[in-house]
TrEMBL record:
Protein name per Swiss-Prot or TrEMBL: Arylsulfatase
Pfam families, A to Z: Sulfatase
Keyword hit for Metal-binding: yes
Keyword check for Nucleus: no
Keywords from the named record: Calcium, Hydrolase, Metal-binding, Signal
Organism superkingdom: Bacteria
Gene3D superfamilies, per the entry: 3.30.1120.10, Alkaline Phosphatase, subunit A (3.40.720.10)
GO MF terms held by the record: arylsulfatase activity; metal ion binding
InterPro entries in UniProt: Alkaline_phosphatase_core_sf, Sulfatase, Sulfatase_CS, Sulfatase_N
Membrane-crossing segments per the record: none
Enzymatic class: hydrolase
Gene: atsA_54
Length: 835
C-alpha cells in the first residue's frame, strides 16, 4: 500500500481497501476534517468506515474523528466524453470530409485519430453500450426505447447489475454531468412522476442539462435541468440549443473549478447534431453556402471525400470505392432542376449544423484550457453514434415526423414551399439519402444498417497531453463503443466494481484502449478480436479481420413493409476480409464456404450470450407494440387543473382509436379563449381550444394538412359542455398492426357539439398511424413549445376561462371475427414468403 499518512491505517484498510494489496492513496491526517482517500472500488458505494476516535462521557475527554472524503487516484484525469449524432465516417474534415470540423482536428492533432471504431447502427443502443461498456442487447437496448419490446435484450431498461461509467466514477469521487441527448430513459418513465432511476441523475450523473428523447427542436426543445423542465429560449429570439448547452456546460465546469479545483470531472457531452431536425443558426448557414461545397452533387462529393481520405492517410491507398447504387438512389444527373435546388439547400443546412456543432464543442474545450486543466483531461471525441441517417428518404423531407408516419417520398415541388425557411423553426427537416450515402464514404449504406460499415463504422479522436505523446498519430486497431468505459476506468486507475448497491455486477464486455496510447502502439495488434452487430434483423460478425454480413434487404426509409419472419436464416450471407478490403467492397463468400458456416455459428453463440434472441426484423410495427405505460388498461382520463409537459409515452394515446373529449368550462364575462387540451405541435398533433370564443378541434396532419372542426358562435358567459367525438373506421391495432399495420391510419368521422347540440361534423379521410411529434407534450390549459396551428394562435395561448373538468374517453378497437380471419390469412402468406 502507498500512503502519505499512516494514521489509522487499519481502519482505512478495513473500510475502503478490502484486501491488503489494494492501491489506496490517503492525504492528510486520518480522522481530521481535511483527510481524503481513494478506494479500491470493489464495493460501491464504499462502506462507511468504523469510527476511529474516542468517546467518553464528556466531549473534553473524547476525540473527534472524521471519515476521509473519497477522491479518485491522484493521477486520474478529467474526462470529456463527446459523441455526436447521426454522423458517418465521411462527415468531419478530420477524416477527409469537406465540412470544417476544426475542433475535432485540434483533438486529433493533439492526440490520436482512430479509423476503426464501431457503433451499433442506431442511436440509443450505441449510447447504452457507450455508457456501460456492455453490448447493446446486454443492457436492454437492442433498439431505441420507442421500439422496446418485452424481452431482456429489447426492453430499454439498463439492468442494475450493469452500472454506468457515470455511477462508477461518481462513487470514486468524480463530479459527473451529462449534457444534451439522453435517449436511454424508457419512454414510459419520462414524465414528472418518474421513476427517475433511469434518468441521467439515476444513472450516476449528478447534473443533467438536455432532452430525454431521441431528437429535439433546437429552437424550442423539450429541455430539462436534472428532472425539471426549463424554457431558457423564451423571450430570446435566435436562441439555439447547440449554443445553449455549450453555455451551460461551460458554466457548470467553471462552477466546479471555482468551488473545488482539485475535483476531477466526467462530462458526457452529447449534442443533438446532426440528428434531424437540422437546425443551425443563420450565421453558419451563410458560411457554408458561401463555400459552394455541394453544387456538383452527391456523387462528386463522394469522390472528393474519398480522395481527401487517401491524402490524409486515414484510409489505405488501395481502398476501393463501390459504384453509385443506381437501383437505390437516383444519380445526380437524373435529378430534376427542382430536386437539385432542393437537395443542395438540404445538405447545406446539414453541413452548417455539423460545423456549428463542432464550433460549440470547441468553446467547451477552450474553457477547460482556460482553467489550466487541458493537459490532464482525457478528451474522447466520437463522430456519430451510427452512420449518417437516410431516414429522410431519397427526396428528404421538411418534417421528420412524416417519415415516422410513413410519408417519405414528398415531391420536391411540394417541399420547395419550405425552401426559404429550411432549417428554421418552421421545419423539422431531413436531407436526401443521396447525401447520407456520400457522407458515409468510403463505405456503403447508412444508419440502421448493422451489416454494412456505412451503418456501424465511426471515427474518433482522443487526446490526453499528460499521457499521449504520439501527437497526430493514427490508430487502426478494431474497437467498439463498448471499449470506451473500460478505457476511462483504466485511465483513471479505477477498477470495475464487484457490487453496486449490494448488487453483484456483470463483467464489462469491452476492452480498454489505453494500450493504444503508447507512442509505439500504431502496429500493436487489436485486443478486441470478436464483435457481433444486429439491428432490426440485419446482422454481422467481426472476427480477427473477417466480417460476415447479411445482404441489405431493407433501406432505412422502408419501415412499413412486412418484416422478415426469420431474420437469422432467411438471409443472403456475405463475407469480407477487412484485412485487405478496408471498405467492405469485395464479397468473397463463394471462396470461403467453410468460414461462412463457422462464422454464422459464432454469431449464434454471441447472440445467445448477449441476449440478441428473439431476433425481430420489424421496424415501424414495434413503435405501436404494447409496452408499459401509465395509461395502460385505462380508457378514461379526468383532469381538473392545468398541467403541461406530459410526454407522449405517458399520455393518453388517441391514434387508431375512437375517442371522446369533453370539456366542462365556465366562460367569464367578456368571453374566453385559449387552449384546453393539446398534444404534439407544429409538425403533428391536435388541439382543442376556443378561438375568439368559438370552440375548435383541430388535427395537424404532419404540417401537410389541417382538419378543423369549428363552432359558428362565440360562447356566452356561463357554464358549457363542449365535446369532440371521433369514430375511427379501422381494424384492431394489436397483432395485425404489428405485422402489417393495415389497421393503422384509417379514416374516421369527428363531431363537435356544444351543450348537446351538434355544431360541426366532418370525415377525416386518413389519420396519423404511428406517432405525434414526440419531442412535444400533452398539455392542459395552455400550449408549450410549438402550436398545432400557427394561423390561429401562438403559444402559450393560455385558457382564459375556467376549466372545471376535462375528460378523455378512449374506445380502442378490438379485432372482430372477420379481422382475425384476415390476420390469419395474412400470417399464412407471410410464413410462406409470399408477402
Amino acid at each position: 500500500m502507498q500512503f502519505r499518512n499512516l494514521g489509522f491505517l487499519s481502519l482505512v484498510l478495513f473500510a475502503f481497501a478490502g484486501t491488503a494489496d489494494a492501491q489506496v492513496e490517503v492525504t492528510g491526517e486520518l480522522g481530521s476534517a481535511g483527510a481524503t482517500t481513494s478506494i479500491d472500488g470493489k464495493q460501491l458505494p464504499a462502506p462507511d468506515p468504523k469510527f476511529g476516535g474516542v468517546i467518553k462521557d464528556d466531549a473534553l475527554q473524547s476525540k473527534a474523528w472524521w471519515a476521509p472524503r473519497i477522491v479518485p487516484p491522484k493521477s486520474a484525469p478529467n474526462v470529456l466524453l463527446i459523441i455526436t449524432d447521426d454522423s458517418g465516417f465521411g462527415v468531419p474534415s478530420t477524416f477527409g470530409g469537406v465540412i470544417p470540423t476544426p475542433t475535432m482536428d485540434r483533438v486529433a492533432n493533439n492526440g490520436l485519430r482512430y479509423n476503426n471504431i464501431h457503433s451499433t447502427a442506431l442511436c440509443s443502443p450505441t449510447r447504452a453500450a457507450l455508457l456501460t461498456g456492455r453490448n447493446h442487447h446486454s443492457v436492454g437496448f437492442g433498439v431505441i426505447s420507442e421500439q422496446s419490446t418485452g424481452f431482456p435484450g429489447y426492453n430499454a431498461v439498463i439492468p442494475e447489475e450493469k452500472a454506468t461509467i457515470g455511477r462508477m466514477l461518481l462513487d470514486n469521487g468524480y463530479a459527473t454531468s451529462w449534457f444534451g441527448k439522453d435517449h436511454n430513459t424508457p419512454t414510459y418513465t419520462a414524465s414528472q412522476i418518474g421513476p427517475f432511476d433511469r434518468w441521467p441523475s439515476g444513472l450516476g450523473f449528478e447534473y443533467f442539462y438536455g432532452f430525454v428523447g431521441g431528437d429535439a427542436n433546437q429552437w424550442q426543445p423539450n429541455l430539462f435541468r436534472n428532472t425539471t423542465q426549463i424554457y431558457p429560449f423564451e423571450g430570446k429570439p435566435g436562441w439555439n440549443l447547440v449554443t445553449g448547452m455549450a453555455d451551460d456546460a461551460i458554466d457548470y465546469l467553471s462552477r466546479i473549478d471555482q468551488i473545488d479545483p482539485s475535483k476531477p470531472f466526467l462530462v458526457k457531452y452529447a449534442p443533438g447534431a446532426t440528428h434531424a431536425p437540422h437546425h443551425p443558426t443563420k450565421e453558419w448557414v451563410e458560411k457554408i453556402h458561401d463555400m459552394h461545397l455541394f453544387d456538383d452533387g452527391y456523387e462528386k462529393l463522394r469522390e472528393r471525400i474519398f480522395e481527401n481520405q487517401k491524402k490524409l492517410g486515414v484510409i489505405p491507398q488501395d481502398t476501393q470505392l463501390e459504384p453509385w447504387p443506381t437501383k437505390v438512389l437516383k444519380p445526380w444527373a437524373e435529378c430534376t432542376a427542382n430536386e437539385k435546388k432542393l437537395f443542395i439547400k438540404q445538405v447545406e443546412i446539414f453541413a452548417a449544423y455539423a460545423a456549428y456543432n463542432d464550433h460549440e464543442i470547441g468553446r467547451v474545450i477552450q474553457s477547460i484550457e482556460d482553467m489550466g486543466k487541458l493537459d490532464n483531461t482525457l478528451i474522447i471525441y466520437i463522430n456519430g453514434d451510427n452512420g449518417t441517417s437516410a431516414e429522410g428518404g431519397p427526396l428528404g423531407t421538411p418534417n421528420e415526423v412524416a417519415f415516422f408516419n410513413g410519408v417519405n417520398m414528398m415531391p420536391a415541388e411540394t417541399q420547395l414551399k419550405w425552401y426559404d425557411v429550411w432549417g428554421t423553426e418552421e421545419t423539422y427537416n431531413h436531407m436526401s439519402a443521396g447525401w447520407a450515402w456520400a457522407f458515409d464514404t468510403p463505405f456503403t449504406w447508412f444508419k440502421q444498417n448493422a451489416s454494412k460499415l456505412g451503418g456501424i463504422r465511426q471515427n474518433m479522436a482522443i487526446s490526453w497531453p499528460n499521457r499521449i505523446q504520439d501527437k497526430g498519430g493514427l490508430r487502426e486497431q478494431f474497437c467498439h463503443v463498448i471499449d470506451i468505459a473500460p478505457t476511462i476506468l483504466e485511465a483513471a486507475g479505477i477498477q470495475q466494481p464487484e457490487t453496486v448497491d449490494g448488487i453483484k455486477q456483470a463483467p464489462i464486455e469491452g476492452t480498454s484502449l489505453v494500450y493504444t496510447f503508447d507512442k509505439d502502439a500504431a502496429k500493436t495488434p487489436s485486443q478486441h478480436t470478436t464483435q457481433y452487430f444486429e439491428m432490426m434483423g440485419q446482422w454481422s460478425l467481426y472476427h480477427e479481420g473477417w466480417l460476415l454480413s447479411t445482404k441489405v434487404n431493407r433501406a432505412p426509409w422502408e419501415a412499413f413493409g412486412v418484416a422478415n419472419p426469420d431474420p437469422l436464416n432467411n438471409q443472403v450471407l456475405e463475407l469480407y476480409d477487412l484485412n485487405t478490403d478496408f471498405s467492405q467492397s469485395q464479397n468473397v463468400a463463394d471462396q470461403h464456404p467453410e468460414k461462412l458456416i463457422q462464422m454464422k455459428q459464432m454469431f449464434i453463440d454471441e447472440a445467445k450470450k448477449y441476449q440478441v434472441f428473439p431476433m425481430d426484423a420489424s421496424v415501424a410495427g414495434r413503435i405501436v407494440a404494447d409496452r408499459p405505460n401509465i395509461t395502460s388498461g385505462r380508457s378514461q382520463f379526468v383532469y381538473t387543473r392545468p398541467m403541461v409537459g406530459l410526454p407522449q409515452g405517458d399520455s393518453p394515446a388517441l391514434l387508431n382509436s375512437s375517442y371522446t373529449i369533453t370539456a366542462e368550462i365556465t366562460v367569464p364575462e367578456g368571453g374566453a379563449e385559449g387552449m384546453m387540451l393539446t398534444s404534439g405541435g407544429r409538425f403533428a398533433g391536435y388541439g382543442f381550444y376556443l378561438l375568439k370564443g368559438k370552440p375548435v378541434f383541430l388535427w395537424n396532419l404532419l404540417d401537410l394538412d389541417r382538419i378543423k372542426w369549428e363552432g359558428p358562435d362565440a360562447l356566452a358567459p356561463g357554464k358549457h359542455k363542449i365535446e369532440f367525438d371521433f369514430r375511427y373506421d379501422g381494424l384492431g391495432t394489436g397483432t395485425l398492426a404489428y405485422n402489417n399495420m393495415s389497421g393503422l391510419g384509417r379514416p374516421g368521422t369527428g363531431t363537435l357539439t356544444v351543450d348537446g347540440k351538434v355544431v360541426d361534423t366532418k370525415t377525416m379521410p386518413k389519420s396519423l398511424p404511428m406517432i405525434l411529434q414526440w419531442d412535444e407534450s400533452f398539455d392542459i390549459g395552455s400550449d408549450t413549445l410549438t402550436g398545432v396551428n400557427d394561423a390561429d394562435y401562438q403559444p402559450p395561448f393560455t385558457f382564459t376561462g375556467k376549466l372545471d373538468k376535462l375528460t378523455v374517453d378512449i374506445d380502442r378497437p378490438k379485432l372482430s371475427a372477420e379481422d382475425i380471419k384476415t390476420l390469419e390469412e395474412g400470417m399464412k402468406k407471410i410464413e410462406a414468403g409470399k408477402e
